[in-house]
Amino acid sequence: MKYSAIAILVVSRSTVLASNTYPVTDTEQLFCYDSDSTASGTGGTTGDDTPDDTPNEVSPGTVDPGPETGDQGTGGQDGSQFLPAPGGLRPRPNRPSRPRDGGGRRHLDEITCAGTGQDAEYTTLSQSFQNNGDGTISDLNTGLMWTEDVYGDGLTYEQVENEVTIFSLGGYSDWRVPTIKELYTLSEFNGQTGTSQDTNIPYIDTDYFNVKYGTTRYIDGQLWSSNQYTGVIFDNPNSECNFGFNSIDGRIKCYGRTSTKLYVRYVRGNTNVGTNLFSVSGLSRDIIVDAATGLEWTRGDSGSGLDWEESLSYCNDLELGGYNDWKLPDAHQLQSIVDYNRSPDATGTPAIDPLFESTQITNEAGAVDFGWYWTSTTHLDGKPLGSNAIYIAFGRATGYFEAPNGTVIGSVDVHGAGAQRSDPKVGPVPDPNYFGPQGDYRRVYNFARCVRGSSSASPDV
């Protein structure tokens, strides 16, 4: 379904200190991908939302909202060289070197990236970490210090809040639960979800960071963030949730604070990461500048739903404010402008600063809502591998929710405004148009908001 455009202009803004600067780093995606073909060298994949060998596979449209509910997981690559380590920890694989050819990186089928607008065409600030030899890892770009390991054998968020107050490592006792923006800075999209722990390539640099897999489903490697959702999930006002990132399947979703048990990776240091400093620029006041990251954004969006290829072209062809170097943002860039204090339920707005203009839609439940926005980043999850791309839900992350007892609740927000999921790159819209444990809707025709520049801001620590 393509949504009609109703442009909404709001004029308030958030205020932050001018010294708050931080860089938005590369997603580390290596290749460009066709919209409807599997890249060469990959192994078998499944078209389902959960892996074929998952013992508690759930049929499409059903969900168990309790502690065992996890994320989706599909796709795969022959990962036989990666053997599971004791206790569910991921050993550190031999990672491919990142090409820097300056002429557009190449598709695995020897198709050049140049001119496509895909994530891998652009070289931005590479991730850079330092192992401090004491169980801590320093991010040399953001100034944050992280724990090398993840902690907890399944903790509710309330338990994590208690645990962090007594946690000490490397001689430091000022550790905290990261925000979702801080946590997302560690993500990289060379990862592949795979069909098992053996074939999974985590969405994080395992040269530096260890991961844990789920004990029942390998894809249940979600990590807590400190951001509580301001909206309502599963049509239950009492269902409070916090956002988390899953470094096993590469998604941001919201998880019940008391009903769900996840892992945690602690952080300390620079508290400026994720704090934006927006201002309106351009002769027509149609550009938003984020002085915190150095990125410039279109104030408006595409105004109507586009598939992924159309969104890439829309930004590539855009001329605005005297500039013609606009592009579709990668996953890190787009997530950097999410405002996790906002939601359609709490503020009547999308999860973005009101300086931006956002297209209003009517969602699958017939409610006033806001769109999902494409990124240029391919999600290596699904069949065929490379056929899905990442989007950020600035409106409700809806799904068709059916309880395990067969009770149909219908179309509801299942993961929260600010969630990061993925959609098929091109149509037609699948039938049924929902899939997976939480019945994620597949719209295909999402919106585009374009970006220019690259983030070179130094962290203000």
UniProtKB/TrEMBL annotation:
<protein>
    <recommendedName>
        <fullName>Lcl C-terminal domain-containing protein</fullName>
    </recommendedName>
</protein>
<feature type="compositionally biased region" description="Basic and acidic residues">
    <location>
        <begin position="98"/>
        <end position="110"/>
    </location>
</feature>
<feature type="domain" description="Lcl C-terminal">
    <location>
        <begin position="287"/>
        <end position="396"/>
    </location>
</feature>
<feature type="region of interest" description="Disordered">
    <location>
        <begin position="34"/>
        <end position="110"/>
    </location>
</feature>
<dbReference type="InterPro" id="IPR011460">
    <property type="entry name" value="Lcl_C"/>
</dbReference>
<keyword id="KW-0732">Signal</keyword>
<dbReference type="Pfam" id="PF07603">
    <property type="entry name" value="Lcl_C"/>
</dbReference>
<feature type="domain" description="Lcl C-terminal">
    <location>
        <begin position="135"/>
        <end position="268"/>
    </location>
</feature>
<feature type="signal peptide">
    <location>
        <begin position="1"/>
        <end position="18"/>
    </location>
</feature>
